[in-house]
Design brief:
Strand content: 5-15%
Number of strands: 8
Largest sheet: 2 strands, parallel
Radius of gyration: 20 Å
């Protein structure tokens, strides 16, 4: 390896983990190499076509894996810059404090993590700000302690969902707004403003975002890191 090919950091994969690390390290001046087996996902009409995405599997990796019995199956994974965040539903939950401890499952015990929720909490806050997470801490009774409110207000409910939320509250339940990572600005009625990247479409979970408004690792981290 020549000096020109030497790097201080090599990041394997550009998904949620690798992409975020690259974004964090980019300002340090270090020589950083990103390794990604996929290409950039093309922006095209099929991004929002249900048949192309789910029936034809246009964006799935054309490969098969094998289970312990030797039977092959399609893993339904995606190899693109941004990884599987290109197709996720943009919901960005925190793990719960108890998730970091020893947990008993049907098949055995999952050992405790070597670090606690409290140690990770400040980094959750930073990540939520980076990924433009909209939400409201305090609504979900199962969430852990937080050091700061979300930087962006929750995505307002559609009228029918708003009514359902009120009905559930009357039953003593605790519905809450999903923490959603999206580049959205809303007016007082919850409609996307004319300056908003997000247009509040119904093509989010499972679809790549045609307008680049979903907070995926490519849009939020990789592209800015490469600038």
């Amino acid at each position: 390896m020549t000096d020109a090919q030497r790097y201080d950091v090599i990041v394997v994969g550009t998904g949620a983990g690798g992409g975020t690390i690259a974004h964090r390290l980019a300002p340090t001046g270090k020589r950083i190499l990103l390794l990604e087996r996929g290409d950039y996902l093309p922006r095209e009409r099929d991004n929002w076509d249900s048949t192309a995405v789910f029936v034809k599997g246009k964006y799935r990796a054309p490969e098969f894996w094998f289970d312990k019995h030797g039977n092959r199956f399609p893993p339904e994974v995606n190899y693109y810059v941004g990884g599987n965040t290109k197709f996720y539903g943009a919901a960005l939950f925190r793990m719960r404090p108890e998730d970091f401890g020893e947990l008993r499952h049907h098949d055995g015990i999952s050992p405790a993590w070597p670090l606690s929720y409290e140690e990770l909490e400040p980094y959750y806050t930073q990540a939520e700000h980076l990924y433009l997470v909209h939400g409201r801490h305090g609504e979900d009774p199962t969430e852990g302690p937080t050091s700061a409110q979300y930087a962006y207000p929750p995505v307002q409910h559609e009228p029918r969902i708003e009514q359902l939320s009120h009905d559930l509250e009357k039953q003593g339940l605790h519905p809450f707004h999903l923490p959603i990572g999206v580049n959205l600005t809303q007016d007082d009625r919850g409609r996307a403003t004319h300056t908003s990247a997000c247009i509040r479409c119904d093509r989010v979970d499972g679809f790549p975002c045609l307008v680049g408004a979903k907070s995926d690792a490519q849009v939020i981290c990789v592209d800015p890191a490469l600038e």
